[in-house]
Automatic annotation (TrEMBL):
The keyword rRNA-binding does not apply. Pfam families: Virulence_RhuM. Keywords: Ligase. It is an enzyme of class 6 (ligase). It comes from the Bacteria. PANTHER family: CYTOPLASMIC PROTEIN (PTHR35810:SF1), CYTOPLASMIC PROTEIN-RELATED (PTHR35810). This is Phosphoribosylaminoimidazolesuccinocarboxamide synthase. The lineage of its organism: Bacteria, Bacillati, Bacillota, Clostridia, Lachnospirales. Its EC number is 6.3.2.6. It comes from Anaerostipes caccae (strain DSM 14662 / CCUG 47493 / JCM 13470 / NCIMB 13811 / L1-92). GO terms for molecular function: phosphoribosylaminoimidazolesuccinocarboxamide synthase activity.
Amino acid sequence: MENKKDNSNVVDNEILIYQTENGPTQIDVKLENETVWLTRAQLCKLYQTSKSNIGEHIKQIFEEEELDEKSVVRKFRTTAADGKNYNTIHYNLDMIISLGYRVKSKIATNFRCWATE
């Protein structure tokens, strides 16, 4: 897998790009407070699965107390295509990796390897 990440000069609010080796999946990753943050839509794209599947896994992760919601969820103000600002829920790397173990796909395994390098 040739996914590249050079974070030697990474600072808060920098965007990193994750792209699969063959290129069909590319995600702009928000980096802040030494972790990456993704929206639910980005998680769906990353793991190539449905919103309901991601939502169910997130619900189970919180119900089973695998992760604490207050430590892995954050709202970021984003500007939409219409120019309006919205508070959008993002999930940090802990949630991203936890979901990767639950989704169980090749792409999930590849992303876990990339993210933990």
